[in-house]
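cron nightly-structures :: item 1 of 1
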Amino acid sequence: MCSSDLFNKWALKSDGGNFTYPVFYSMCHMITSLVGSWILMYVKRPATGMPTLEQFNFYKWEALSLSLCTTVNITCNNASLMIIGLFVNQIIKALAPLLSMIFSALILKRRYEKKIIASVIVIAIAAGFAVPFKDPSVTVLGVCFVGVATIASSAKPVVGELLMSVSEKPKLAPAALVFYDSCFSAVFMLIYWLSVPSEREGSVNYLISNPAEGWTILILGSLAAFGYNISVFYFTMVASAVAVMVATNLLKVLL
C-alpha cells in the first residue's frame, strides 16, 4: 500500500505525472477491479453464485456501505496526496488499526484484551515513526481529506469481514465483494466525474494531449489497485479486519 501511495503521489502531483484528476483516476481503478473480479468469478464460480440483482437486493445495505467506504477512501486519499506530503499522509493513516478495532467493536461486537489493544497502539506509533521524514508539507484541507480517508479505509475491512465471515447471511466470496464494491464505487465516481466540468474536461484533454503517459499511469495504477483490493479481502477472510490494518502498518515499518 505504501508503494502504491508513492506511485499515486507521483501520478497526481503537478510536478510529477501531472494527472491531477483524482476522481477519474480512481474511477478507472474501480472499473479495472470490476472487470478483474468478474473474470475471477467466471473462472471459479463462488458458492453463492454469480452476482445478480436478486443477490444484490439481499446484501444491498452492506454492499452499498462497502462501496461508500471505498469511494470516500480512494477519492479523499488521492485528493490529499495532491496537497500534502506523503509523510503527513502516512503518519495519519498509521492510526488505521486503532480505528478498525473501534469499528470491529461497534459492528462485529468484538471485544479485545488490554494487551492486544496495547500492542496495536505500539504498532501504530512505530509505523508513524517509521515513515521517512520527506516532503512534510501540510494543509488543513489535506489533513481533513486524509483523516476522512483513514476512517473510511478502517471501516471497509470490518464490513468486508461481516459479509465474508460473521454475518448470519450466506457468506460472500472475496471476488464477489470486490465486484459489488467496485461496481457501485465506479457509479458514484462516474456521477461526480460527469457533474464536475474541470474533472471531466481536464481528464479527457490530458489523455488526448499525453496519451502514452496518461494511459500508462491509468493502467499501472489500476492493476495495482485491483491486486490490492482482491488481496485485502482474501486476507480479511482468513484473518480479520484489524489484522489487515496491523499488517499494513508492519509493512510500513519493514519498508
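cron nightly-structures :: done
The two ends are 11 Å apart (CA to CA).
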